[in-house]
Amino acid sequence: xxxxxxxxxxxxxxxxxxxxxxxxxxxxxxxxxxxxxxxxxxxxxxxxxxxxxxxxxxxxxxxxxxxxxxxxxxxxxxxxxxxxxxxxxxxxxxxxxxxxxxxxxxxxxxxxxxxxxxxxxxxxxxxxxxxxxxxxxxxxxxxxxxxxxxxxxxxxxxxxxxxxxxxxxxxxxxxxx
Length: 177
Fold this sequence. Notes:
By secondary structure, this protein is an alpha+beta fold. It has 3 domains: 12-88, Arc Repressor Mutant, subunit A (Orthogonal Bundle), CATH 1.10.10.10; 90-125, no CATH class; 139-171, no CATH class. 38% of the residues lie in helices and 10% in strands. Strand 1 (66-72) and strand 2 form a beta hairpin. The longest helix is centred in the middle third of the chain and has 14 residues, at 90-103. The mean pLDDT is 90.
C-alpha cells in the first residue's frame, strides 16, 4: 500500500517522517550504523523480505541517507554506508532507544548500551540550550513560529490547525507535557 507523501507538509517533523518514518527505515539505519552493511546481512538481521528491503534501501539512497559503496567488482556487489545526512539520524536512534529502555523493557534497560569510545561511559541524548548551556526539561520548552510573518498554510490544509495555535500563542506555546 502506497502512503501519502509528507514532503510538502509545512512541518519539519512531518518532512522528517516522510524520509525516516517507515518502520523498517530506522532499523536499517541502525544496522548500517552497527556495521551490518550488506544486503543479505541486513535482511537476515531484520527478517525483512528482499523486495521490501530493496525498496527501502533504494529510497534511502535516493533520499541521501545511505550511499552504495562497491566492495567487489566481479560480480559487482555493494554495501551501504551512512552519509552525513544519515549519520545525523543517530541521535534520533539513541533517543528512541532510551525511550524503549525506559518504557518497553520490564527491567528498565534494553539489550544495547552505546558508549563514548574515548572514556567508555554510556552516552545519552538531552535537550540543551546552547545559550545558557543548561539541559532543558520538556516542561521548560515552548514552540513558536520561526517567522510569524510567513504565509500560513491553507485554511483547511495540513498544518493549519497547529499553525493557528502557534500564531495565537504570541510568545510561544508551552509544550504540553
